[in-house]
């Protein structure tokens, strides 16, 4: 059995969550977001007319993160960059809101029930698909975060049964830029919300792969460190629907470091479908990589068949 599942966008696709390159066209097709598309085109992609169909959401927020950090252009209003990023994240929260997704919950419950054993999870997804499946089966989850529930305090289990490390944040979380407190919202909405302690406007806890903005948050450093330790200690890891995008250099380094520190003994399975080019994974894991060529749905189905025979 697997010790650890690492899940990306392809894992959530069966929930109705859009694929990476469907997100921006969907956001910009709304008339209210035309000004946003115009600004982003001018700042990020002035020479590429059809960029929204070619670029992932995470690449755009990574580029905004880089621009904010290095401030390479003298004539840009950097408050506008912040506003654009905030607007994009607001739209993303709506796209991934459980009311707007939620297809094929049976598949996820089957996965957790039949395949996940006692495994823990690393997730690069902002959505709540995995949390929902775990909660439906009565599992309690440790997010490895010191959270304040908003608006009310929810009673928590003393000993959570699963660890789920969300390396890029989550749509139901926001953080205070002043006190660094992380708030978990029972009711997800896109309205402005304020810190219960200091009154500051809260930021979305959706993290760009570059991590520049989030690196000041102790919570994010803790989650990444916990992920590294989990990776090192795992004997069998399965990657589901995670493509290791070029923008995510830190993840590449973390996987590579963990494999070396593990003594290069761990076996690693890829569940990314038949058309995925596994070269980046082979560069890290070499002969320890097993490319199943199955999509997530097929893989769950195969295991179900296997269990019945
Ligand atoms: Zn605060």
Tell me the span between the first and last alpha carbons.
18 Å
Radius of gyration: 19 Å
Tell me the CATH architecture of the largest domain. 3-Layer(aba) Sandwich
Share of residues in helices: 40-55%
The CATH topology of the largest domain is given as Rossmann fold
Report on this structure.
It is built from eleven helices and eleven strands. With 309 residues, the protein is an alpha/beta fold. The chain has a seven-stranded parallel sheet. A four-stranded mixed sheet has the order 4-7-6-8. Helix 4 runs antiparallel to helix 5 and helix 6 packs across helix 7. Zinc ion (ZN) binds next to loops.
List keywords for this structure.
four-stranded mixed beta sheet; DHS-like_NAD/FAD-binding_dom; alpha/beta; single chain; binds zinc ion
Short note summarizing the structure:
The protein is α/β, with parallel strands linked by helices. 40% of the residues lie in helices and 15% in strands.
Secondary-structure blueprint:
Blueprint: E1 4-7, H1 9-12, H2 20-28, H3 34-44, H4 57-70, H5 78-96, H6 105-115, E2 120-123, H7 129-136, E3 141-142, E4 147-150, E5 162-166, E6 169-175, E7 182-185, E8 203-206, H8 218-233, E9 236-240, H9 249-261, E10 267-271, H10 279-285, E11 289-291, H11 296-308
Parallel strand pairs: 1-2, 1-9, 2-5, 3-5, 4-7, 9-10, 10-11
Antiparallel strand pairs: 6-7, 6-8
Helix pairs in contact: 4-5, 6-7, 6-11, 8-9
The structure holds zinc ion.
Zinc ion binds at residues 176, 178-179, 181, 195, 197-198, 200.
């Amino acid at each position: 059995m697997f010790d650890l599942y690492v899940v990306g966008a392809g894992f959530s696709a069966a929930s109705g969550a859009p694929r990476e390159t469907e997100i921006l066209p969907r956001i910009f097709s709304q008339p209210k977001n035309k000004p946003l598309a115009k600004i982003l085109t001018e700042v990020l992609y002035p020479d590429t007319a059809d960029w929204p169909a070619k670029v992932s959401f995470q690449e755009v927020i990574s580029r905004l993160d880089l621009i904010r950090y290095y401030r390479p252009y003298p004539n840009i209003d950097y408050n506008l960059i912040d506003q654009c990023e905030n607007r994009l994240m607001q739209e993303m929260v709506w796209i991934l809101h459980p009311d707007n997704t939620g297809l094929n919950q049976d598949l996820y419950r089957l996965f957790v029930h039949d395949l996940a054993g006692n495994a823990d999870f690393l997730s690069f997804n902002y959505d709540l698909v995995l949390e929902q499946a775990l909660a439906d089966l009565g599992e309690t989850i440790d997010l490895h975060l010191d959270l304040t529930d908003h608006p009310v305090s929810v009673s928590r289990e003393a000993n959570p049964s699963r660890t789920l490390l969300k390396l890029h944040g989550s749509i139901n979380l926001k953080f205070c830029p002043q006190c660094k407190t992380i708030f978990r919202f029972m009711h997800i909405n896109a309205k402005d919300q304020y810190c219960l302690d200091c009154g500051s406007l809260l930021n979305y806890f959706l993290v760009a792969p570059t991590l520049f903005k989030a690196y000041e948050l102790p919570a994010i450093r803790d989650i990444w460190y916990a992920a590294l330790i989990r990776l090192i200690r795992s004997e069998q890891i399965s990657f589901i629907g995670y493509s290791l995008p070029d923008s995510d250099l830190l993840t590449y380094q973390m996987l590579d470091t963990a494999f070396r520190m593990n003594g290069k003994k761990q076996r690693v399975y890829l569940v990314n479908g038949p058309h995925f080019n596994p070269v980046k994974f082979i560069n890290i894991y070499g002969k320890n990589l097993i490319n199943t060529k199955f999509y997530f749905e097929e893989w769950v189905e195969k295991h179900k068949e296997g269990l019945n025979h």
